Amino acid sequence: MPITTFTSRELNQDVTRAKKAAQSGPVFITDRGKPAHVLLSIEEYRRLTKERRNIADSLAMPGVAEIEFEPPRVKIGTQAADLS
């Protein structure tokens, strides 16, 4: 699935081209060089917003691999139980 990028100015100048690009994948719209919005086809939007039943479905979503997420490691210690 190709990802297309348009600046806000490019989008304003050629909305039709952006809508056509959204038929084959998400269109990122940048503002001052940073991603600010995403244009999706209605089919893709509906597919992404349907109810997820489990974590595996959510992790299988397109684009998840590009998300940077590194949670801190948690150390869980054990201690003796007081059975007195």
Could you explain how this protein is built, in words?
With about 80 residues, this protein is α+β, with helices and mostly antiparallel strands. About 30% of the residues lie in helices and about 20% in strands. It is built from four helices and three strands, in the order E-H-H-E-E-H-H. It has helices at about 10-15, 15-20, 40-50, 55-60; strands spanning about 5, 25-30, 35-40. A three-stranded mixed sheet has the order 1-2-3. The chain is elongated and about 75 Å long. The mean pLDDT is about 85.
What do the pLDDT scores average to?
Answer: 86
Structural class: alpha+beta
Distance linking N and C termini: 62 Å
Choose one word for the global shape.
elongated
Total beta-strand segments = 3
Oligomer: single chain
Largest sheet: 3 strands, mixed
Going across the major beta sheet, what is the strand order? 1-2-3
Reading the helices and strands in chain order gives EHHEEHH
Helix content: 25-40%
Rg, alpha carbons: 21 Å
The fraction of residues assigned to DSSP E strands is 15-25%
Question: How many helical elements?
Answer: 4
Indicate the low-confidence ranges by residue numbers. none
